[in-house]
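Query structure, 155 tokens:
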């Protein structure tokens, strides 16, 4: 199995096969609008803009499992991200990233790299659709270890 075998609904409710990102490096992040790490949206957007032409795509997956910090509807989440952070990277419908109701995407992402402990946990997926590494919420989008891993994956 690879990332490319999964289809999810975008924030506007349309099915999106992750096979559309085949051959690209993907940074998958569980996001939330009311979290202490929410300002990372700005860094994620900056990273996306700087690296998208080199083959990096960021995918945001809203999740309400950590402290109820993503209570909004899809429309509210989209508006919040656009208005406050100018987010242009793809966002998907709210999903569960841990526990019994874990979405298939997160069953795949966490199989070898563990479940997120909080919002803004990052999974780096290589061009082959396999998870390379995971980074805790405390690792900022411009953190040296994340930037080095992305750089290596893009080569």
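Result returned for the query:
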């Amino acid at each position: 199995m690879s990332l490319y075998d999964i289809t999810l609904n975008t924030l506007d409710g349309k099915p999106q096969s992750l096979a559309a990102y085949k051959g690209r490096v993907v940074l998958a992040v569980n996001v939330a609008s009311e979290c202490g790490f929410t300002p990372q949206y700005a860094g994620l957007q900056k990273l996306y803009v700087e690296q998208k032409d080199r083959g990096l795509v960021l995918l945001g997956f809203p999740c309400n499992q950590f402290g109820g910090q993503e209570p909004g509807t899809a429309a509210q989440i989209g508006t919040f991200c656009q208005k406050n952070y100018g987010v242009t990277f793809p966002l998907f419908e709210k999903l569960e990233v841990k526990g019994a109701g874990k979405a298939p995407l997160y069953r795949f992402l966490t199989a070898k790299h563990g479940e997120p402990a909080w919002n803004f946990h990052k999974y780096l997926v290589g061009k082959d659709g396999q998870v390379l590494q995971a980074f805790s919420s405390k690792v900022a989008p411009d953190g040296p270890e994340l930037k080095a891993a992305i750089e290596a994956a893009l080569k």
